[in-house]
């Protein structure tokens, strides 16, 4: 299937672009031709001179917001090292089901794949990998809480698991609205999780770069 070239490019650098991924779009191609449409395919369609590998990091299919996509191998390598060494800063906005107690905090939970039920992830205090998220409540309305998430690690489904895990187990006890895996998936037209800001040092000059999505999440 020919990729739809429509994807907002917020910034173009010699070696990378910053895109604002819409919800319900893969970050990289999935299995089969029906899953060919994705962020990297759309960027390649817009910038034919781009060479792989392009994906430096990923957002879940349901998650919208900022991604950096490399346009050549050296930049991909440099950006990947920044992510691996936790030299990037990412902030997300989410709307959670229910009113979360407190104004801010830290969630630290060990996560691993739930192999019989992939892609689900579960909290496993014996075999899970450490994951840490800072959170801050920024609004409450109609029994829901708008929060800002700052992940300090990058585990699969980290924010979704941290939100949905009961408070007695160390989570927030409030799934993300519209989450089809960890919540009801029926509270909104989409999953209410958006990658709002992305910052990192330039792989060329070392200058600190910060990008912000102009998209917002409206209470459903």
Characterise this structure:
- By secondary structure, the chain is mostly beta strands.
- The longest helix is centred in the middle third of the chain and has 12 residues.
- The mean pLDDT is 93.
- The strands form two sheets. Strands 1, 2, 3, 4, 5, 8, 9, 10 and 11 form a nine-stranded mixed sheet that branches. Strands 6-7 form a two-stranded antiparallel sheet.
- It contains three helices and eleven strands, in the order ββαβαββββββαββ.
- A hairpin with a 7-residue loop joins β6 and β7.
- The chain folds into two domains: 77 residues, 2-Layer Sandwich (Pseudouridine synthase); 103 residues, 2-Layer Sandwich (Pseudouridine synthase), CATH 3.30.2350.10.
Number of strands: 11
Please bin the fraction of helical residues: 10-25%
Corresponding CATH superfamily of the largest domain: Pseudouridine synthase
Instruction: Give the low-confidence spans.
Output: none
Query: What is the highest CATH level, the class of the largest domain?
Result: Alpha Beta
**What's the domain count?**
2
Q: Write down the CATH topology of the largest domain.
A: Pseudouridine synthase
Helix count from the secondary structure assignment: 3
Mean pLDDT across all residues, rounded?
93
Largest sheet: 9 strands, mixed
Cα gyration radius (Å): 17 Å
Structural class: mainly beta
Question: In the CATH hierarchy, what is the architecture of the largest domain at level 2?
Answer: 2-Layer Sandwich
What would the principal axes of the Cα set say about the shape?
Answer: globular
What's the order of the H and E elements? Answer: EEHEHEEEEEEHEE
Beta-strand portion reads: 25-35%
Q: Span between N and C termini?
A: 32 Å
């Amino acid at each position: 299937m020919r990729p739809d070239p429509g994807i907002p490019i917020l910034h173009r650098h010699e070696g990378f672009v910053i895109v604002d991924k819409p919800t319900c779009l893969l970050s990289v191609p999935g299995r089969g031709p029906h899953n060919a449409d994705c962020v990297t395919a759309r960027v390649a369609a817009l910038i034919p001179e781009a060479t792989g590998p392009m994906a430096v990091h990923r957002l879940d299919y349901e998650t919208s917001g900022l991604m950096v996509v490399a346009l050549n191998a050296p930049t991909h390598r440099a950006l990947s090292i920044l992510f691996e060494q936790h030299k990037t800063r990412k902030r997300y906005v989410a709307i959670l089901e229910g009113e979360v107690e407190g104004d801010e905090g830290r969630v630290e939970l060990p996560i691993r794949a739930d192999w019989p039920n992939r892609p689900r992830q579960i909290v496993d205090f014996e075999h899970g990998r450490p994951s840490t998220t800072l959170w801050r409540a920024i609004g409450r309305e109609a029994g829901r809480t708008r929060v800002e998430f700052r992940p300090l690690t990058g585990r699969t489904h980290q924010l979704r698991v941290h939100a949905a895990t009961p408070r007695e187990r160390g989570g927030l006890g409030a799934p993300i609205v519209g989450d089809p895996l960890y919540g009801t998936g029926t509270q909104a037209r989409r999953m209410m999780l958006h990658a709002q800001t992305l910052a990192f040092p330039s792989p060329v000059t070392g200058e600190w770069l910060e990008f912000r999505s102009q998209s917002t999440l409206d209470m459903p």
